[in-house]
Specification:
The complex is a heterodimer of chains A (81) and B (442). Chain A has 81 residues and is mainly beta. Helix content of chain A is 10%, strand content 36%. Chain A has a single domain, classed as Ubiquitin-like (UB roll), CATH 3.10.20.740. Chain B has 14 helices and 21 strands. In chain B, helix 4 crosses helix 6. The longest helix of chain B has 17 residues. The chains are: A mainly beta (81), B alpha/beta (442). The complex binds flavin-adenine dinucleotide and FE2/S2 (inorganic) cluster (FES). The site of FE2/S2 (inorganic) cluster has 13 residues of chain A, from loops. The site of flavin-adenine dinucleotide has 34 residues of chain B, from helix 1, strand 4, strand 7, helix 4 and helix 8.
Chain lengths: 81, 442
């Protein structure tokens, strides 16, 4: 059985992912950083389990969402912070 | 809103599940809480009863999960302990959708089973996208990250390195090398002792190595730096004194585990050599507060299960049943000690960061700034190290290793608390209601 496929956008670009994919996994697959650090370095998921806060993104306008703890949903708009 | 239980278990990993089930089967009213949506903790993360048997450790999961389902344990998922409101009362935050609710839970006895997390060590380039914790990378793959065709380097120390390499290989990644910092002599004697005393664990390790035979496994070797523009593109490792640069897409690092001591520290439990000190019944220095699993020594699944059962019996006043399990406990504790000795971090790793290397990733505090400080407290005041959103969970254990600092005591709230919870705590503090709680010095 093929898994259901969802469409989201990451920094405006469309991406299709299987249902059950976390937003952090989608960001890594899209090759986009999640956030920029206080000195402007690009950052991406580190701990994968909600501890490091490096995977924070803006989701549907809501800032500082831990993308490793969030599943992709159809139509979701994800933006690098 | 508040609720009262005979026994309150914080953390629903294998240790917490075993404790809660054991106590409830003795007729106690038990609450089992976890920040995650489903019980299972680290090792059973994401397993489901129907399919568990196809995965490593799935059989144990199925057995305990079935007992849990048949028991009277009341499970509180998506809930974090954030503060201690009184000696026998903890403040918890329940998340449902975008709503967060704050509740106090009262209990006669408390069992802490908050487990462990990965340790991270700073080296040049460790902040580049694509550098991840080994367990973190594994969790990301479980949540949909596609590793097929990716070139992955694994570096660090401990049994997790091989376990994660095997799961990556199985999922279709190309393993470019596994680099273990421990010396061959220690690994060899560890392997031999494990084969004799814990054959099951030995077989598990051997199976992981068989799955990764096409990749080099080197001991006495560690990562020196990661490089790339905008993301990791290559890793330089030192192998028995010689440097080698390996192109890669991801670098997965494992520096063994550190116990999640926030809650035991908040309650005031005595910590000895990095772990909670407990007696033969798993009771901590605070009466009626029991600590189990990774909190008392990094030892893995079997240790958590045995200690959970001991604490469950003891908290339910079944001391004889608890003491009967002592020989199993001793064997698991010995294994935990062997792990610590075998995979102890070598001093050379302290020399990895250059002055420019970031140690605190939340506030971008560099090694040069921290090396000039004399304590964690001073570093916090002068550099904001550990003051960012991770609250020192990543840089704390790193600073402990690099600078020999003791981590500061936990201060409530334990993260991530909402503003409304903070307000509730502040109100009570000003009303003098939490003055008599036995928390560590604040
Ligand atoms: C990333 C990772 C991968 C691992 N992989 C393996 C493996 O492959 N094989 C192996 O033998 N061991 C593995 N381990 C070791 C693992 O710690 C043990 O095997 C076992 O899971 C320990 O059980 P535990 O009950 O002590 O703690 P855990 O399983 O860690 O469970 C602790 C639970 O407490 C919860 N918790 C913590 N703090 C709070 C709080 N304040 N409020 C609410 N809930 C809280 C956590 O959400 C977690 O569910 C791994 C550990 C990590 C960190
Ligand atoms: S990757 Fe660490 S919090 Fe999400």
């Amino acid at each position: 059985m093929q898994p259901e496929v969802l469409s989201i956008t990451i920094n405006g670009k469309p991406l299709s992912v299987p249902a059950g994919t976390s937003v952090a996994a989608a960001m890594l697959m899209a090759g986009e950083p999640c956030r920029h650090s206080v000195t402007g370095e690009p950052r991406a998921p580190l701990c994968g389990m909600g501890i490091c806060m490096e995977c924070r993104v803006t989701v549907n306008g809501l800032p500082h969402q831990r993308s490793c703890q969030l599943l992709c949903a159809s139509g979701m708009e994800v933006v690098t912070e | 809103m508040s609720a009262h239980f005979d026994i309150f278990v914080a953390g629903a990993g294998p240790g917490g599940i075993a404790a809660a089930v054991t106590a409830a089967e003795s007729g106690k009213r038990v609450c089992l809480l976890d920040a995650n949506p489903t019980p299972g903790g680290q090792i059973w993360r994401g397993l489901r009863l129907e399919t568990a048997r196809n995965y490593p450790h799935g059989a144990e999961f199925a057995a305990w999960q079935s007992r849990l389902a048949a028991s009277s344990v009341e499970i509180l998922p998506n809930t974090q302990v954030v503060d201690q409101a009184a000696p026998n009362r903890l403040r918890v935050e329940l998340e449902s959708g975008s709503e967060t609710q704050t509740t106090d839970i009262e209990f006669n006895r408390l069992i802490l089973a908050t487990g462990a997390r990965e340790r991270f060590l700073p080296f040049p380039g460790w902040t580049l996208p694509g550098v991840m914790g080994a367990g973190g990378a594994q969790a990301l793959v479980k949540s949909g990250l596609d590793p097929r065709g990716k070139r992955v380097v694994l570096a660090g120390t401990g049994p997790l390195l091989l376990a994660v390499a095997a799961s990556f290989a199985r999922a279709g990644a190309k393993i470019e090398g596994i680099f273990e910092q421990a010396p061959l002599s220690r690994l060899a004697s560890f392997a031999l002792r494990t084969m004799l005393t814990h054959p099951g664990k030995f077989t598990e390790g051997a199976r992981y190595r068989l799955k990764t035979l096409s990749a080099a496994y080197r001991c006495n070797s560690w990562v020196k730096r990661a490089e790339g523009r905008g993301r990791v593109e290559s890793v330089t490792v030192t192998i028995a004194g010689k440097e080698r640069t390996i192109p890669c897409d991801w670098l997965a690092c494992a520096w063994h585990l550190v116990p999640n001591l926030d809650l035991p520290r908040l309650i005031g439990c005595k910590i000895d050599s990095g772990y909670v000190a407990v007696d033969a019944l798993q009771q901590s220095s605070i009466p009626n507060v029991f600590c189990i699993g990774e909190l008392t020594g990094i030892g893995g699944l079997e240790k958590a299960l045995i200690e959970g059962q001991i604490a469950g019996h003891a908290a339910a006043n079944r001391e004889a049943e608890a003491r009967a399990l002592a020989p199993h406990r001793r064997s698991q504790q010995n294994f935990a000690q062997q792990l610590d000795q075998t995979f102890a971090l070598r001093p050379e790793l302290r020399t990895l960061p250059t002055g420019q290397t970031i140690v605190c990733r939340c506030e971008d505090v560099r090694h040069s700034a921290l090396a000039a400080c004399t304590s964690w407290r001073q570093a916090k005041l002068h550099t904001r190290c550990g003051m960012g959103p991770c609250q020192g969970r990543i840089c704390g254990p790193a600073a402990e290793f690099l600078y020999n600092w003791q981590s500061a005591d936990s201060r409530p709230p334990i993260f991530p608390a909402r503003v409304s919870t903070l307000a509730a705590s502040a109100d009570e503090a000003s009303a003098g209601q939490i003055t008599q709680c036995p928390t560590a010095s604040r």
